[in-house]
């Protein structure tokens, strides 16, 4: 494990940080320093293009979106770009690796950036917050930091797709876990003193952007995830992914309507749980007041300190 | 920005396949497909797809251009990347499917596809503000179906939207902007220009 | 020509079917052989197979013949629980350091079994891949050669060990037995180090670790074998019930750039054999074989053609995406049938992963050139005294391994003859 | 020591529970008083140093010369109980008495007593074996076939220090490879076609002093045996005879006749070519044969003739790799050519998978489907199974048929021989059906005529008959024209490939000293064939060395005994000649059998075949076994102690019985087991004598017979079955029930079930009641 002191982490919050996933942004900004890592935000960052940017604007334009953010980060003397959003990671990391590997692409990106007097030298690492926490911090450090263990809380660790696929098990992705059966999220929960329940749907898909565009096609996917969590006796579902968090949380009522179920399982970010376990403020740091689906277990979390 | 497509004279005329290999991100690996079915079998909504990636790839080899670009498989990808990480031949299936969807849009296929509409609204927000305003993107997407449908759709999701607003997770007021917004738009325009230029060249060669 | 007189002894490393064959063929041609095996008994992988394709005959049958050949041939010296730690020199003059592991039972053992009666301490049964247990003092299996007991290291130092020692009337128990290193001088070396199954837990989407009813092809051999954990009855490991629906998944690891890029050659035929095992025991069972291409090369096609006529054995051209495990442990195979375009999710009583073959690692001093996968390959200019036999040189079936072992014996003989500059055999002999 | 009088000594071990199960003193009594054996000793650890020292001392001071060990099974401790190179006679009191019968019971003691009696009798009937090789043994290896396989064989033999005679029917060495340039890669990175190196190989052979090359030469006659083959040759019209030690046959293959593939357009359009024909077109960018225009779109059709019951039932194995190689060569010469490979199952086993990937990277399009036909204008119609539609491809410039391999197990260029052609037709059939689970009657409801349990079989007997009716190998002239009573051909299997016990012992054939390799044995590529050549050469050399020592080849390696014929009583019935699995017995001018010793594998099938027990080995003979049978005490019927005699194959059934004992599985103490070299060596005389002596039942235990035979002497158990079928009459004439004599298929893996087989038979016999001949 290399010394974080040598690294300068620049933070890319992504668009959802200003909307649906404020609580991810909030909690990350709280726990990352608490875990002993410095990070500063990329100045005037732009959207990464998400999963449909390619369709909307084409491949080079989408790559260039990341190119611009990376160029900015380079200007801030970053060594590593860190992001908590799966889609942002996917695009920014993916683009970064392609720009590194493909000279022609790099030339084109820089030709485009030149219009804004920018260029990217392609010497940054783009890393997912979870990978950084696993590889740079480690589970023991998390345990050490816990002052308010989340005893008795049963957590279903729902990793989702893009946090681990296609990069988690690759060299450039930091080789920090497997594609189908990742354990880091459960280990996070355990480190926080909670109980990680046996949950086989860790990496099954919530429907991603298709869930936003045509929910009717994907509600059953989310239903299966909720069902598995309920069967496992989970109090809350924990996830690292903004879109997963929104989809699994927001569609519960629609699912209950369509399938006659009665799901009411809060979906929180792992970082919210960590913030709480680190004894930070439930509202200002953990942002636990922002979760729409609530049960008493969640309320207990919010209250006790 | 449409790269000219080769016309294929007969089944398995490789003109189209070679065009795809060249013009779709990751498709240079497509020739490695051995039709094992792992991709389609791993897809979370594979049963909703008319062809699924595996058969789509065979159709590309067979030069079935129209069928490929009109296939709903392009629009049902949830980007879960299971196919990509499991492909025994290392083919970036997700990228190729998305690339094909992008091409289909630019080539004027599938204008009625929900995902195409959404992508359009998304890109609109992006090029206007440099960031995605979930509220505006969704609204624009809904209304792309026409006023009536739009209102209907937004009402369907009013409950969700309201919940978000209450929890301060839907931004109200003027959208967040990239300050160097103009530059960004110019940069993107340039990028699209370059891409168009290269594909024209690509198609000729 | 080089230091010391050339040795005409041939060292065969690995006592599986390839090593055994190389050893007996060389010895029966008139050369001295040392046969090295790292486990307590010869026979290697095939001794744990129930039967061979395509004849469905028992490996022990051929092994019995080979063991008799070894018993009767004074030219062959067998060393078990031994492996090569270093090798140096050149054809005619290799010095090989061999490390021997303690068996705690010496050559006085008569296999009478009194030691096993002395304790009820049990350990995992390696021969059955841990699917059952054996007494801490055990004979590796009923056909073990040499037929000599082993004491599990786990009990050494416990009073169980003492009881075992006291129980032996023949002074065959040696609890002070320990690791030792022997130096051998040999003229040629044949690597017959064989293979291991690919690690199923690396194929996370096939959930090998998540259900007792998902087993691998080697475990299936034990399950079907009369001296296996179930006495030869193919039963669900989870609940001991008979099986009705069985799935055999090909290319579990093989032909996959995420795992083993090459084809392991034997799995298709092995699985067809497994299908026959099931159908021989269950008139009403159905077997689904999931495959990419059925690779029944050369004459073995006939076996495929025969198996394919069984209406209850289905060949499904599909590499499954993943296996879901239901709460009761039932495996559900999910994938696409590439011929019908059906997206299926089918539950089974038993799923067998046809794991590919991975070459066993060699000590770096093996003085052999290996390809990216670890198979020993005859690169031009290789040391003439070193050769490989069987799967150490590539994924082969038994017949081909025997073929390559016989060829390896010849090249070893050539090497020692050349090194010792023996005269050409005359055109004729008068005796 | 052969002239020395037999001087046995009995050594009884009381260890391993034997002493607890039976009275060793009683046994000693039998030896000393009943049989008057002068030296008789007991020990509680006979296989230990001290125990063996006893025996060695007695041998040393000459007080004995034939030790009889009454202890464990002859299968174990063989080395401990081998003295002066000769394994001692053994009585199996451990595995088959102490470990499988209740201790201290009368029946157990009687069993042990009988086994000791049998062993002593066996000893008195055993003569020391002496090697009997006489005359001039050749060490020259004849290699037949000058293609890549044969060239490698010749070189390997020469490099091992043996003289080689390489015979090729064509004027030029090199075979198919000589006409071509490249081969599939067999070295890392397994990616690109490699030069096949055939010219260097030919040069190396021609430069080798120990190799004599005869091209344009045919073998006209072969007689003799290993070390003493007499091979007559016709070398360009001029006859010559050679003295040969062993023969390696590498006659290779020929392409399947494409004229039989009319439906694939062959012969209708000049641009439908075979893969063979394509090889000659690959020296430049591919051109259409019709008009010389560049061929831009080329379709390879796999399995053209192979894997097709109407043509070749087997997979020719190399075609996928060869088509990939040719596709890559075409693309290398013309990068924008469109090359397709239409396959049913793509077979690139092992590291050849890399070669497949290489072709995909190069842009070769692989299409899974079954071809229907190719029209005269090159319209190719097939089922595109992955698109799920029938496709007709137009605009092809060339269609390449990947035709299969036909083994040259005969020489199609010469006249079929008068005799022996039947070997091409009705030999062992690898396509025979596999028996499956026994279906219960109610499950058979579907089929009305279901009467009782029926063994279900899979595999198509009909199509099997077809492939038998017209075997893939066209009957031609014999390769070696063997002057064997059993015919001129090297035995071959029904699929046309030469005989080989093709799993454990691929080089075992029914013609000792003659080893086939390369595609005549099994479809294989050049790399595999060159390795196969080395293997065959090793066996050839082995047979030369063993012949010179007068020792047997596999599986009774080193056995110096051989069958001797008492011609005075021989009736010239020819059974031994016909039934010998190895064709080792010929006839002299008076039609008396003569043994070609170095062909003999010592199985004793001749002994079992002989109706007048005139054939015997020094250490295995009808009289020896009759003596052993006679030594067994048969109580009279009032004792209610039936006696059952079992003849058990020493390689499968006998080990299974030992392992049953090892697992302490109990079975009836009424049985007496005599291990036999092979059921083929069991003469009916033993059976009838035993019946006359009052044995109540007799069982033959041997391995599986038939097409998936497991007999190491090929047809031992099949022969025993045949002979046993004949005994029905004898039994009737003796007024005995047929059930008293039976045969059981017991494999070496039956250690769990063999006790039930035995106990079941004992019950049957109980049911029938005692043999009336008792006490006569």
Description:
The complex is a heterotetramer of chains A (305), B (205), C (431) and D (776). In chain B, 57% of the residues lie in helices and 0% in strands. Chain B has 205 residues and is mostly helical. Chain B starts with 14 loop residues before the first helix and ends with a helix. By secondary structure, chain C is of the alpha/beta class. Chain C folds into 3 domains: 10-101 and 179-194 and 360-419, FAD/NAD(P)-binding domain (3-Layer(bba) Sandwich), CATH 3.50.50.60; 114-167, no CATH class; 197-357, FAD/NAD(P)-binding domain (3-Layer(bba) Sandwich), CATH 3.50.50. With 776 residues, chain D is α/β, with parallel strands linked by helices. Chain D has 6 domains: 1-128, Rossmann fold; 141-252 and 497-549, FAD/NAD(P)-binding domain (3-Layer(bba) Sandwich), CATH 3.50.50.60; 256-404, 3-Layer(bba) Sandwich (FAD/NAD(P)-binding domain), CATH 3.50.50; 428-469, no CATH class; 564-609, Alpha-Beta Plaits (2-Layer Sandwich); 620-776, 3-Layer(aba) Sandwich (Rossmann fold), CATH 3.40.50. Chain D is 28% helix and 21% strand. Residues 438-454 and 461-473 of chain D have low confidence and may be disordered. Chains in contact: A-B, A-C, B-C, B-D, C-D. Chains C and D meet through α1, α2, α6, α7 and α8 of C and β7, α11, β26, α14 and α18 of D.
């Amino acid at each position: 494990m290399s010394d974080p002191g040598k690294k300068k982490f620049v933070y890319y919050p992504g668009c959802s940080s200003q909307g649906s996933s404020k609580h991810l942004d909030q909690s990350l900004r709280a726990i990352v320093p608490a875990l002993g890592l410095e990070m500063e935000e990329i100045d005037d960052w732009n959207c990464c293009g998400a999963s449909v940017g390619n369709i909307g604007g084409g491949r080079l334009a989408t790559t260039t979106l990341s190119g611009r953010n990376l160029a900015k980060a380079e200007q801030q003397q970053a060594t590593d770009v860190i992001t908590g959003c799966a889609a942002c990671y996917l695009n920014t990391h993916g683009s970064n690796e392609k720009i590194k590997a493909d000279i022609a692409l790099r030339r084109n990106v820089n030709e485009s950036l030149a219009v804004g007097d920018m260029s990217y030298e392609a010497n940054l690492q783009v890393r997912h917050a979870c990978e950084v926490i696993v590889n740079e911090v480690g589970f023991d450090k998390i345990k050490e930091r816990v002052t308010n263990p989340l005893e008795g809380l049963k957590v279903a660790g729902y990793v989702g797709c893009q946090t681990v696929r296609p990069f988690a098990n690759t060299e450039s992705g930091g080789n920090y876990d497997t594609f189908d059966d990742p354990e880091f999220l459960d280990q996070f929960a355990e480190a926080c003193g909670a109980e990680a329940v046996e949950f086989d749907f860790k990496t099954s898909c919530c429907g991603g952007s298709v869930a936003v565009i045509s929910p009717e096609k994907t509600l059953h996917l989310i239903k299966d995830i909720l069902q598995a969590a309920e069967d496992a006796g989970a109090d809350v579902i924990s996830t690292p992914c903004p879109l997963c968090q929104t989809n699994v949380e927001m569609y519960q009522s629609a699912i209950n309507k369509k399938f006659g179920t009665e799901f009411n399982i809060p979906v929180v970010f792992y970082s919210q749980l960590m913030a709480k376990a680190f004894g930070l403020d439930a509202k200002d740091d953990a942002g636990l007041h922002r979760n729409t689906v609530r049960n008493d277990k969640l309320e207990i979390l919010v209250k006790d300190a | 920005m449409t790269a000219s497509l080769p016309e294929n004279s007969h089944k398995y005329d490789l003109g189209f396949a070679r065009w795809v290999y060249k013009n779709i991100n990751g498709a240079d690996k497509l020739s490695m497909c051995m039709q094992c079915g792992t991709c389609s079998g791993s897809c979370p909504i594979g049963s909703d797809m008319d062809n699924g990636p595996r058969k789509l790839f065979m159709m590309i080899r067979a030069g079935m251009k129209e069928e490929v670009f009109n296939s709903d498989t392009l629009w049902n990808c949830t980007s879960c990347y299971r196919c990509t990480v499991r492909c025994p031949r290392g083919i970036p299936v997700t990228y190729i499917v998305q690339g094909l969807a992008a091409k289909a849009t630019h080539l004027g296929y599938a204008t009625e596809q929900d995902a195409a509409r959404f992508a359009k609204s998304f890109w609109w927000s992006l090029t206007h503000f440099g960031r995605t305003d979930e509220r505006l993107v969704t609204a624009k997407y809904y209304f792309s179906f026409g006023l009536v449908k739009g209102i209907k759709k937004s009402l369907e999701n009013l409950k969700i939207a309201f919940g978000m607003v209450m929890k301060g997770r839907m931004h109200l007021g003027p959208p967040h902007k990239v300050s160097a917004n103009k530059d960004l738009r110019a940069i993107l325009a340039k990028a699209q220009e370059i891409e168009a230029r290269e594909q024209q060249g690509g198609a000729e060669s | 020509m080089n230091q010391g007189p050339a040795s005409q002894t041939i060292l065969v490393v690995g006592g599986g079917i390839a090593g055994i064959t190389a050893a007996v063929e060389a010895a029966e041609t008139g050369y001295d052989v040392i046969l090295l095996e790292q486990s307590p008994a010869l026979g290697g992988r095939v001794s744990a197979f129930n039967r061979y394709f395509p004849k469905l005959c028992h490996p022990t049958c051929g092994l019995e013949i080979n063991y008799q050949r070894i018993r009767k041939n004074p030219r062959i010296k067998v060393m078990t629980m031994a492996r090569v730690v270093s090798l140096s020199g050149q054809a005619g003059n290799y010095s090989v350091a061999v490390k021997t592991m303690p068996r705690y039972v010496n050559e006085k053992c008569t296999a009478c079994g009194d030691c096993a009666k002395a304790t009820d301490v049990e350990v995992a049964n390696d021969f059955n891949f841990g699917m059952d247990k054996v007494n801490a003092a055990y004979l590796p299996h009923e056909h073990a050669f040499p037929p000599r007991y082993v004491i599990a290291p786990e009990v050494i130092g416990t009073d169980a060990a003492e009881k075992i020692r006291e129980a032996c009337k023949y002074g065959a128990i040696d609890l002070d037995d320990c690791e030792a290193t022997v130096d051998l001088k040999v003229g040629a070396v044949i690597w017959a180090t064989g293979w291991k199954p690919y690690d199923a837990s690396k194929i996370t989407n096939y959930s090998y670790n998540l259900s007792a009813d998902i087993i691998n092809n080697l475990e299936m051999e034990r399950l079907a074998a009369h001296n296996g954990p179930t006495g030869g009855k193919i039963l669900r490991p989870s609940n001991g019930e008979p099986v009705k629906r069985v799935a055999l998944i090909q290319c579990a690891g093989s032909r996959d750039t995420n795992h083993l890029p090459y084809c392991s050659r034997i799995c298709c035929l092995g699985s067809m054999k497994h299908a026959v095992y099931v159908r021989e025991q269950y008139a009403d069972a159905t077997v689904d074989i999931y495959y990419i291409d059925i690779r029944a090369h050369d004459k073995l096609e006939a076996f495929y053609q025969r198996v394919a006529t069984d209406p209850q054995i289905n060949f499904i051209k599909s590499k499954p995406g993943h296996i879901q495990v239901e709460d009761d442990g039932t495996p559900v195979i999910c994938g696409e049938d590439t011929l019908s375009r059906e997206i299926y999710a089918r539950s089974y009583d038993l799923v067998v992963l046809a794991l590919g073959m991975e070459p066993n690692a060699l000590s770096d001093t093996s003085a052999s050139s290996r390809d990216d996968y670890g198979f020993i390959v005859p690169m031009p200019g290789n040391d003439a005294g070193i050769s490989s036999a069987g799967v150490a040189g590539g994924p082969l079936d038994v017949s081909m391994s025997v073929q390559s072992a016989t060829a390896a014996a010849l090249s070893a003989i050539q090497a020692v003859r050349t090194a010792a500059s023996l005269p050409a055999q005359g055109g004729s002999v008068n005796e | 020591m052969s002239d020395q009088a037999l001087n046995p000594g009995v050594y009884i071990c009381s260890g391993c529970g034997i002493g607890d199960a039976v009275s060793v003193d009683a046994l000693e009594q039998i030896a000393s008083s009943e049989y008057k054996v002068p030296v008789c000793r007991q020990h509680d650890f006979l296989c230990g140093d001290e125990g063996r020292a006893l025996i060695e001392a007695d041998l040393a001071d000459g007080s004995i010369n034939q030790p009889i060990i009454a202890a464990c099974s002859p299968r174990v401790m063989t080395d401990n109980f081998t003295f002066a190179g000769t394994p001692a006679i053994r009585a199996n009191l451990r595995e088959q008495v102490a470990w499988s019968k209740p201790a201290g019971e009368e029946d157990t003691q009687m069993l042990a007593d009988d086994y000791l009696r049998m062993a002593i009798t066996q000893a008195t009937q055993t003569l020391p074996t002496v090697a009997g090789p006489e005359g001039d043994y050749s060490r020259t290896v004849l290699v037949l076939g000058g293609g890549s396989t044969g060239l490698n064989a010749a070189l390997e033999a020469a490099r091992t220090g043996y003289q080689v005679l390489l015979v090729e029917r064509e004027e030029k060495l090199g075979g198919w490879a000589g006409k071509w340039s490249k081969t599939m890669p067999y070295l890392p990175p397994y990616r690109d076609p490699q030069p096949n190196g055939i010219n260097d190989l030919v040069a190396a052979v021609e430069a080798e002093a120990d190799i004599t090359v005869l091209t344009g030469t045919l073998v006209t006659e072969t007689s003799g045996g290993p070390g003493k083959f007499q091979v007559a040759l016709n070398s360009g019209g001029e006859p010559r005879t050679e003295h040969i030690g062993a023969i390696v046959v590498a006659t290779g293959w020929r392409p399947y006749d494409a004229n039989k593939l009319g439906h694939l357009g062959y012969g209708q359009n000049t641009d439908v070519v075979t893969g063979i024909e394509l090889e000659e077109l690959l020296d430049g960018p591919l051109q259409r044969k019709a008009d010389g225009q560049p061929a831009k779109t080329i379709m390879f059709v796999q399995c053209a003739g192979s894997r097709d019951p109407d043509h070749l039932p087997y997979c020719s194995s190399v075609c996928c790799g060869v088509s990939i190689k040719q596709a890559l060569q075409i693309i290398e010469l013309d990068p924008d050519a469109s090359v397709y490979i239409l396959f049913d199952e793509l077979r690139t086993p092992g590291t050849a998978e890399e070669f497949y990937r290489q072709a995909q990277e190069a842009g070769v399009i692989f299409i899974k489907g079954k071809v229907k036909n190719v029209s005269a204008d090159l319209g190719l119609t097939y089922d595109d199974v992955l698109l799920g539609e029938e496709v007709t491809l137009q605009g092809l410039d060339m269609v390449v048929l990947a035709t299969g391999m036909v083994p040259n197990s005969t020489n199609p260029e010469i006249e079929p021989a008068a005799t022996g052609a039947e070997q091409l037709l009705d030999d062992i059939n690898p396509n025979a059906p596999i028996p499956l689970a026994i279906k219960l009657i109610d499950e058979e409801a579907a089929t009305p005529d279901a009467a009782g349990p029926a063994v279900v079989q899979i595999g198509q007997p009909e199509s099997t008959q077809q492939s038998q009716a017209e075997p893939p190998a066209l009957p031609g002239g014999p390769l070696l024209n063997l002057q064997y009573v059993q015919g001129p051909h090297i035995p071959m299997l029904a699929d046309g490939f030469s005989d080989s016990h093709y799993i454990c012992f691929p080089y075992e054939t029914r013609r000792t000293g003659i080893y086939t390799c390369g595609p005549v044995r099994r479809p294989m590529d050049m790399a595999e064939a060159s390795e196969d050549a080395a293997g065959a050469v090793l066996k050839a050399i082995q047979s030369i060395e063993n012949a010179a020592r007068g020792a047997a080849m596999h599986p009774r390696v080193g056995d110096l005994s051989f069958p001797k014929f008492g011609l005075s009583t021989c009736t010239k019935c020819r059974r031994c000649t016909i039934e010998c699995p190895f064709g080792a017995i010929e006839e002299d001018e008076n039609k008396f059998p003569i043994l070609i010793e170095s062909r003999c594998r010592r199985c004793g099938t001749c002994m079992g075949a002989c109706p007048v027990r005139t054939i015997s080995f020094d250490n295995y003979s009808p009289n020896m076994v009759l003596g052993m049978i006679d030594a067994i005490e048969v109580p009279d019927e009032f004792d209610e102690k039936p006696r059952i005699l079992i003849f058990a194959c020493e390689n499968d059934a006998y080990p299974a019985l030992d392992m049953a004992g090892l697992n302490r599985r109990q079975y009836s103490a009424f049985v007496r087991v005599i291990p036999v070299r092979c059921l083929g060596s069991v003469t009916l005389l033993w059976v009838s004598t035993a019946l006359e002596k009052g044995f109540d039942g007799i069982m033959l235990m041997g391995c599986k017979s038939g097409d998936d035979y497991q007999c190491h002497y090929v047809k031992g158990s099949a022969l025993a079955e045949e002979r046993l079928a004949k005994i029905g009459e004898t039994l009737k004439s003796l007024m005995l029930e047929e059930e008293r004599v039976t045969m059981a298929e017991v494999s070496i893996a039956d250690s769990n079930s063999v006790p039930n087989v035995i106990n079941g038979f004992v019950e049957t016999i109980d049911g029938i009641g005692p043999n009336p001949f008792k006490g006569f």
